[in-house]
Write a structure and sequence with these properties.
nine-stranded parallel beta sheet; 9 helices; 46% helix; alpha/beta; single chain; 9 strands
Length: 208
Amino acid sequence: MNWLNELKNHRGIVAILRGIRPDEIEAVAEELIASGITLIEVPLNSPDPFDSIARLVELSRGKALVGAGTVLTVEAVERLSELGSQLVISPNANADVIRRTRALGMFSMPGVFTATEAFCALDAGAQVLKFFPADMLGASGIAGVKAVLPADTEIAAVGGVGESSFAEYRAKGIHNFGVGGTLYRPGRKAGEIGQIARGLVTAFDAAS
């Protein structure tokens, strides 16, 4: 599958569900998908993350791209492949993780912060570069690094971005975002998450 083309079929908001439990995942995912957020990440430092991801894969077939965040090892990549995960998202740019992700036919989105890290990640096969924490660089800082990267490099901003900042980043050519704590936190009810998600979608679409 051409994952970059597939990504363009989805609104550029990745829901980061750090801390979610398996017994919450179906209700939360249904709210997210109904709101129009169809890129969903369960970080591996959540409770029983592989159970949540397995449930999420089953629920979201044909409706969303789903996978894991905070993926740090090749072994985790291989287990995710067995579960049918599509997205492999990391806070760092581990070349072995990126290469194994690509070899197993999944989508690679590693975390970077500098031009050196960005080029190393691209050389290993990364398909989208996740600038994290984005609020430390800001839209202008990320755009400055982006200027020296290949023109077709896809960028995501993660960390401290949301409704109030989408327009600023999109004006700099950054069209993909990861949203975590402002959307989901442990204990927040699915209906409330859906309401927040709809607000994010409205702001994202208005900024386009």
